[in-house]
Specification:
Elements: H1 2-21, H2 24-49, E1 51-57, H3 62-72, E2 77-81, H4 84-92, E3 98-102, H5 106-111, E4 119-122, H6 127-147, H7 170-200, H8 204-209, H9 214-242, H10 252-278, H11 281-298, H12 310-316, H13 320-334, H14 340-366
Parallel strand pairs: 1-2, 1-3
Antiparallel strand pairs: 3-4
Helix pairs in contact: 1-9, 2-7, 3-6, 7-9, 7-10, 7-11, 7-13, 9-10, 9-14, 10-11, 10-13, 10-14, 13-14
Length: about 375
């Protein structure tokens, strides 16, 4: 009994993988959406991560040079160091969002213990960018005073205590949800198309009425989706690691791979259920994309979920990808196993439920 089950499972698995490899369009349908999302995330991070600012230094004294250096070292601007005329042209053409000017006489006023100004002109076309400038310029001035130490007329002490071991860039933070999206789409597409194809070619009843165990047929199809998804997920993880986007270490590689495997299994099981429900390739692709993208957004795929509205957080609590994202973030970025047991349990239970639904859908449809 067991050898027959394993033999049938292997046959179905191998057949579906061979078909998948011969279908470049299916591979593209799996990879392209996640790639597009990643590019959009990268462009968005580039646009809002560091605001483009024109720096005009009209003062030639030592204090003017020091505050200019403080602005350069703030690491929150993409600076264009130009003269006043060029700065106005750039602001007018929306090449920069603000002009920071250190006026002539800045050093002289400070040495005479007189008020000295740093002039800021902001194009408030976008509140997010405007607020970045409003926060960043005073912070740069604070760093200017801090760098002077005991010689500073204003005593400044900064005591920063980070909750996390390292700072994660906005684009890096977006990489993991995109990998999760890739896993889900891959599982849905591969499992769904492999199942729907059996109905389109009228081979499903032959498979299920043959001496081969029906459970082995279902297992083979689920495993085919799992293998392709897991392979793509590991490949993308490795590439992201080489590019320095993610950095899991030691034992946390194992928890990372475990979560990737569970998401791949969940997507493949759900794909088999969708394939059995719709029985045609075109609607399966459409439904799979729809479900994948909605689950991606609802689970906080493009933002920090903890900062989203309460109603969205309440919905996300019922989306399994939320727990996959959390587990990967903890393992990959912070070398932490915080709530790993909860995340693994949710993903495993959902995978089992999807596997049951997929099996039920195939058996029910085959009897119609």
């Amino acid at each position: 009994m067991i050898p027959n089950f394993l033999r049938t499972t292997w046959f179905i698995l191998r057949k579906d993988l061979q078909i998948w490899l011969r279908q470049p369009a299916n591979i593209a349908a799996t990879i392209v959406p996640a790639l597009v999302v990643l590019i959009v995330q990268a462009l968005g991070a580039q646009a809002v991560g560091r605001s483009p600012v024109a720096l005009v230094v009209e003062d030639s004294g030592t204090q003017g040079a020091k505050i200019a250096q403080a602005i350069r070292s703030a690491d929150v601007f993409r600076l264009h160091e130009v003269d006043a005329t060029q700065a106005q042209t750039q602001l007018k053409n929306l090449d920069v969002v603000a002009i920071v000017t250190i006026p002539a006489g800045f050093t002289t006023h400070l040495q005479a213990h007189e008020p000295a100004q740093v002039n800021v002109t902001v194009d408030n076309l976008n509140l997010d960018l405007t607020n970045d400038i409003r926060r960043a310029v005073p912070d740069a001035v604070t760093q200017y005073y801090l760098a002077q130490g005991n010689a500073s007329p204003i005593k400044v002490t900064v005591n920063e205590s980070d909750l996390r071991q390292r700072d994660i860039q906005l684009f890096q933070y977006a990489v993991l949800p995109t990998i999760v999206l890739l896993l889900l789409i891959s599982g849905l597409i591969t499992g769904g198309l492999a199942t729907a194809r059996e109905w389109e070619t009228s081979t499903v009843k032959e498979l299920l009425l043959s001496p081969a165990p029906g459970s082995a047929v279902i297992a083979g199809k689920v495993l085919a989706g799992f293998v392709t998804s897991f392979f793509l997920g590991v490949l993308v993880l490795f590439v992201a690691y080489l590019l320095g986007w993610i950095y899991p270490q030691g034992i946390y590689w194992l928890s990372t791979l475990l979560i990737v495997a569970l998401i791949a299994l969940m997507g493949s099981s759900l794909g088999v259920a969708i394939g059995a429900a719709f029985r045609h390739i075109q609607p399966v692709i459409g439904v799979s994309m729809f479900i994948s993208l909605y689950l991606f957004f609802l689970s906080g795929g493009i933002s920090v979920l903890a900062f989203e509205p309460a109603w969205l957080q309440a919905i996300a609590a019922f989306v399994p990808l939320t727990y996959g994202n959390h587990a990967l973030q903890m393992a990959v970025f912070y070398n932490s196993a915080a709530l790993l047991g909860r995340d693994v349990l949710v993903l495993a239970l959902f995978s089992v439920v999807m596997l049951f639904l997929g099996s039920t859908a195939i058996n029910r449809q085959s009897n119609n």
